[in-house]
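Dear H.,

Thanks for agreeing to be a second pair of eyes. The structure we're designing against is below in token form, covering all 727 positions.
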């Protein structure tokens, strides 16, 4: 090693550090000695130094293969910032001009460039292969090496072609580096790269400073804004699975006064680069992104990582959460979980090859197990990577700080398995749940499953409970979902053993993970239950008083769900009132003044602390359908033509009109009503709604006669009444 001088001196000279971390020194020595080297080190552990320092010390140029242009740019900027000359490192990518490429090649040939970053796609280009054959390559570094494995969380087929290309260019030692790899993925990487003989350096995966929490996905946007407001000025990443959701969440944060920006693969490369730089340079606090963002991003002070959607694998989850707290400081990792998200993944996988479905299903199953478990998050996470965490309580995850209640459910599991076997393992979870709860759906009656021994055997629990039993039994290995006909529940050998010798089965009880993602301030549109019954009663009296003054039924002023939402949210000005369910700008201005004055006085007199969630501003409704309908009604276009042009039915247009009118917008669609209903029928229906205290469609049909009116007729007339009299 004397050839290279003291490693510590070189570390100080090139990077300004006075000591190595963990296994960095041993790994670097392996590279300097010309060994194939495999480095498995968590995010923040200093992987990049393991190839950067040897590259600066050795003769020739190190070829660093990296998956993303943004990642390469970040790495090149980082290494240049520590050296005196920019040409010490370059990246070769598809965005460069011919002139820029020629300049890079000149720097390499003259020995100025010690690190050349390339994407695997660039590596396979014939002109690049021919050029690289001419230069001395010190070694190849494969960054984000998990991309090689089909079992890895970010598999990229082009990574499979790296070894043949290296053979063609010319052999040199190979260094493979990753922050996440199970034993299976590690073996897959080494085998594919032909480095089964590599010296392996594996660090602990425990990030003690990271706090892990899984929350039910109930009004996640409200929760996110509340969390960020409580952590004002801190850097954070929010991961969403779809580009649409990324843009929606970013816009929502912006209108709520949060410095946020979006990042996803649908943006052009220049925009992505600008947005990434804004985050790194702290011009913005929060970046909302798909998983396209973050690989190798060298920002040490990210204080939180939020997963709006559950990741598809624990490896992906570990790497993404690992981007927080890289400096050893605070790092909060919060994930929103709904089993409906998992079902979306399962549906998405159905069209893929069976082998790919099998891999995807198993990776997803591990994630579900992690999300729904009541034991320490660290135990599960580290065990997944083959590491034993010996502490019973880590003191830094939700399950350790707030232990979940577990109940004995061995009897329920046995009942579930018997029901599945009784229908010959030919049905999905929802159908089995209906059998157990005794729910006589059309499918149950059609297959005569209401005559089964299992029918109603689980009516002491609801469908949600039984779905939790199926999931947790699957996690425990008692059930599987068939691959070929995905979703059919099958009892495993372990499940049959359980039936032959039933034993204790602890079920996590209080994780309510079946809730759907709800929009901000969403309330039920059925007859609502008030949050504050006293306020609801007072508001109801005010509504009657105003209705009497205007000679209108009370429901025209505000419907019950609107009053219920007021009694939960306590709006005290017109702007806030417009965020209440079913209250648009028109209604708020026409009837709102007395309501908000009453609520303001009530809040003051009763010293009520209004919910923080209410301060969340919603994104304005930009429904293209609604705008299209309003424009076409103004032009007196028939509802049939409007429906045809939108590829929907007339009843759907009427439903949209109902939403528009209920929010306080005045519409005149008499021309359409006149075309389908005579004046006498119109007057009867109009008078009915003027006199009734109940705006129910069913009641109106009963009173006016189903022989004379269709449901659509009644809906149209109720909409006309609301529009004419209420708006």
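And this is the sequence the design step returned. I haven't edited it by hand at all.
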């Amino acid at each position: 090693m004397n050839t290279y001088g003291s490693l510590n001196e070189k570390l100080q000279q090139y990077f300004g550090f006075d000591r190595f971390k963990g296994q960095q020194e041993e790994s670097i020595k392996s590279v300097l000695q010309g060994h194939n080297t495999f480095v498995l080190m968590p995010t923040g552990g200093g992987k990049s130094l393991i190839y950067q320092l040897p590259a600066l010390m050795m003769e020739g140029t190190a070829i660093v293969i990296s998956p993303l242009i943004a990642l390469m740019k970040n790495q090149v900027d980082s290494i240049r910032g520590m050296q005196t000359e920019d040409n010490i490192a370059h990246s070769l990518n598809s965005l460069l001009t011919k002139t820029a490429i020629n300049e890079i090649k000149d720097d390499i040939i003259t020995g100025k460039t010690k690190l050349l970053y390339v994407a695997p796609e660039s590596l396979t280009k014939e002109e690049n292969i021919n050029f690289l054959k001419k230069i001395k390559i010190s070694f190849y570094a494969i960054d984000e090496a998990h991309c090689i494995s089909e079992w890895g969380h970010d598999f990229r087929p082009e990574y499979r072609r790296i070894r043949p290309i290296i053979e063609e260019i010319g052999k040199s030692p190979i260094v493979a580096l990753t922050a996440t790899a199970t034993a299976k993925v590690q073996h897959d990487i080494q085998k594919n790269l032909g480095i089964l003989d590599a010296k392996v350096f594996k660090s602990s995966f425990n990030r003690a400073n990271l706090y892990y929490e899984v929350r039910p996905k109930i009004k996640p946007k409200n929760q996110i804004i509340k969390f960020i407001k409580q952590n004002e000025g801190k850097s954070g990443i929010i991961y969403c699975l779809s580009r649409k959701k990324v843009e929606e969440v970013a816009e929502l944060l912006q209108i709520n006064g949060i410095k946020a920006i979006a990042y996803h693969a649908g943006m052009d490369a220049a925009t992505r680069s600008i947005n990434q730089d804004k985050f790194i340079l702290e011009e913005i606090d929060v970046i909302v992104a798909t998983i396209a963002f973050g690989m190798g991003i060298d920002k040490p002070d990210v204080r939180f990582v939020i997963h709006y959607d559950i990741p598809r694998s624990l490896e992906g989850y570990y790497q993404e959460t690992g981007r927080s707290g890289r400096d050893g400081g605070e790092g909060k990792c919060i994930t929103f979980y709904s089993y409906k998200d998992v079902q979306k993944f399962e549906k998405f996988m159905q069209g893929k090859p069976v082998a790919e479905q099998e891999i995807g299903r198993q990776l997803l199953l591990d994630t579900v197990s992690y999300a729904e478990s009541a034991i320490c998050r660290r135990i599960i996470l580290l065990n997944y990577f083959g590491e034993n965490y010996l502490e019973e309580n880590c003191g830094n995850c939700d399950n350790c700080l707030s232990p979940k209640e577990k109940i004995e459910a061995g009897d329920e599991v046995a009942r579930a398995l018997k029901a599945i076997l009784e229908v010959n393992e030919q049905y999905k979870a929802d159908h089995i749940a209906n059998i157990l709860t005794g729910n006589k759906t059309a499918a149950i009656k059609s297959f005569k499953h209401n005559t089964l021994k299992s029918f109603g055997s689980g009516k002491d629990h609801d469908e949600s409970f039984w779905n939790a039993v199926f999931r947790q039994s699957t996690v425990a290995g008692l059930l599987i979902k068939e691959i070929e006909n995905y979703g059919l529940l099958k009892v495993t050998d372990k499940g049959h053993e359980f039936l032959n010798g039933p034993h204790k089965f602890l079920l996590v009880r209080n994780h309510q993970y079946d809730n759907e993602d709800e929009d901000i301030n969403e309330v039920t549109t059925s007859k609502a239950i008030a949050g504050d019954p006293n306020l609801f009663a007072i508001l109801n009296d005010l509504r009657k008083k105003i209705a009497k003054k205007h000679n209108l039924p009370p429901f025209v002023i505000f419907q019950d769900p609107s009053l219920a939402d007021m009694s939960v949210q306590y709006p005290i000005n017109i702007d806030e009132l417009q965020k209440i369910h079913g209250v648009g700008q028109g209604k708020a201005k026409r009837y709102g003044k007395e309501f908000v004055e009453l609520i303001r006085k009530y809040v003051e007199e009763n010293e009520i602390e209004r919910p923080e969630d209410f301060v969340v501003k919603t994104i304005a409704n930009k429904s293209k359908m609604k705008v299209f309908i309003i424009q076409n009604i103004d032009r007196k276009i028939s509802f049939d033509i409007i429906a045809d042009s939108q590829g929907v039915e007339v009843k759907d247009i009427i439903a949209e009109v109902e939403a528009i009118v209920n929010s306080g917008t005045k519409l005149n669609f008499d021309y359409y009503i006149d075309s389908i209903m005579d004046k006498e029928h119109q007057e009867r229906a109009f008078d009915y709604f003027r006199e009734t205290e109940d705006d129910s469609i069913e009641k109106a049909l009963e009173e006016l006669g189903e022989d004379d009116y269709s449901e659509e007729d009644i809906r149209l007339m109720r909409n006309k009444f609301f529009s004419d009299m209420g708006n």
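Two observations from my side: The CA atoms of residues 316 and 330 lie 21 Å apart. Confidence is low (pLDDT under 50) at residues 515-530.

Warmly,
E.
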